[in-house]
Amino acid sequence: MARARSAASAARAVPADQRTPALLVSPEEQCLILLRDHRSLTASAIASRTDLSRPTIDAALRSLETAHVVTSDLRPTGKAGRPGRTYTFVPRDRMIGVDIGAHAIRAIATDRAGRILARYEADRVREPSRDTFLRDLDDVVRIVSEGASIAGVGLAVPGIVKSQKVKLSRVLPYLNDWDFHREIESLINVPLFVSNDVKAAALGEARLGAGTVDSSQVTVWLGRRVSTAVTLNGELFEGANGVAGEMTTAVGTQWTPGSVCGDWKWPEGRSPLETAERAHAGDAESLASVHEYLEALADPLSRLVAILDPEVLVLAGALSETSAPLADFLATNLKERLTVPFLPRIKRSAHGRYSTAVGALYTAFTNPSAPALAHWQLPAPLTLTAPDLPTDTTIHSTRTHAS
């Protein structure tokens, strides 16, 4: 009777909204999710966070140990009596997100718990072609996997992507009319999910970054190119042809006099981030260029904001990493162009120039073709965590463009 009261008290100690839902999730999967998010727990701690009985939890943990996805050891509890048995999730496989653009390639690798194991960025120096595209992708997957087994890869590219096919890319035109999905899967020998770069960034910020799942959000990619994407309650709003929320698809909003073929031209060929940092340091020419850029952006963006009335506006891309107060500058420009006194909350991206790679990573986790963990499905993590390492995990290859 005393043990029953103790278990009931432990269950009440965890609020209902923090307890793992049991609907359509096996006991093993409930235990896996908790161990992934908390790293290590005792069976009693798992019981306090679920509605599972202790015998069910014990049986589930034995199954997970047998499948080698969980380990256990005895640890002192700090109280009188025997040490307690603690269970730890063993996330052996890697998940990888890759962002390939015209100028640069970036990637991020995590384990299945969402712990960041490697980042990679490099200039794209090979002559653009289908062959070099495949070679760049194969190289980056090999580098960030570091010899570990890979469970899935998400790939984000510029262009209109629908049903994992590039319908139109003006930035990488060799992707047009090329059904490369199966070709790449054969090359890297793991499940692949293909998405648009800015939509991937929006998804990454909504699910694993500065946005929130329960809000309407417009993500603005700031760099050489400007592009936008919309998420509603954490899900992409793509429209019939995959272009919903893209403010530069209409004639008259394709960009501005400072832009050539979609690429904004910064003073003396500097990168967007370098220009913004010089502006923040007081360089008059750079400051004027940044203001001109944001004023040009505010015209089409204000119309998008007026139509959608989003709760959150996330600034992503390399330019979002500047110390210059871009959010304040942009808010001022938007206020001047709106007839109502309402603005979305303007937030800086959590992942900066890696937002697209993070979104691609999220699609690798949620890809229906991704392999199960032993016999069980493990959903995408709720957040990414930095590794317990004293050094930076970024792998650099040549000087990169901050695009």
TrEMBL record:
Origin superkingdom: Bacteria
Gene3D superfamilies: 3.30.420.40, Winged helix-like DNA-binding domain superfamily/Winged helix DNA-binding domain (1.10.10.10)
Record-linked Pfam families: ROK
Protein family according to the UniProt entry: Belongs to the ROK (NagC/XylR) family.
The protein, known as: ROK family transcriptional regulator
